[in-house]
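dumping these here so i dont lose them again. two proteins, back to back, each one seq then structure tokens. dont judge the mess
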Amino acid sequence: MKTANDNDLSLEPTELATADDVHAYAVDAPSDALELHFRQLSQYPLLTAEGELALARELERADAEIARALLSSREGRDAVLDLLTALRAKELAIEDVERNPGQSPPGDELDVRLERALRRFAARDERQRRRTSAPPTRARRAAAS
């Protein structure tokens, strides 16, 4: 272990802080973690009304895309059905599932919306299944030739 007395180690003396330096640090330094957090937050601009609306529209669009992707597959619909069953059996609270519970109009609760979406996508799948399994019409036979 090397010490200050070893020939190959040069230790430079450090300057001692002055009272002014200590005072300047104490004035500028946050006194607790919360103050530090707020100080860091103040470096970012707040959302404007237009920015908030744009962000809300973007979230709604993303939610719709997620719902479409989920409900477009059989496995996704099964997962939504399991969720619906757990909600109705009170195994899950609505607050565990919905982003803003309690803000839906009466009669438009989450379980009702989920059931409606499941029915709509199941009907769409049934229509597609019938179309693909229907016997070919003369027009389809002619197009295939």
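---- next one ----
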Amino acid sequence: MLLGTRFGGSSFLGDQETRDSQLESTDELKASDPLDLRGLGTELRDGDPDDPIGAVLAISDIHGNRVDLLSGLRGLDRTAFVRSIEVPLQGRGLRFVSREDFIAMKLFAHGPQDLSDARYALEAAPESLDVDLLERLAAGFGPDTVAALAKLRA
């Protein structure tokens, strides 16, 4: 997950690969119109009052790739930004959340693809996972996320 201060999201690039991202401000949502000019489709959806996500800006291309930029994710640990990792891409630095943050967020989202993504990330290198941190992050998202983590690890 790339990190900013207010918005985050996931892009799905095939069955097992997921990339997540964050926007810096709501002003970037207004910049979605030029994406249409680049052949990218956009759709902005507001969450319900009880929804754990305030809004989603979905961006897709003609190849079926999609990125969902999320606003107002409840339960996100504020220190996720400190744990982020910078990865160079085309001369720019992109910030991605830690694997522990990624797994906790995916378990919180709890959709079928999210659970698959969490399972894949957990199994990729279990020896390097900070289990205590992951359990703390899952607890921040609530009891359903803690239960999902326990089930995934069983």
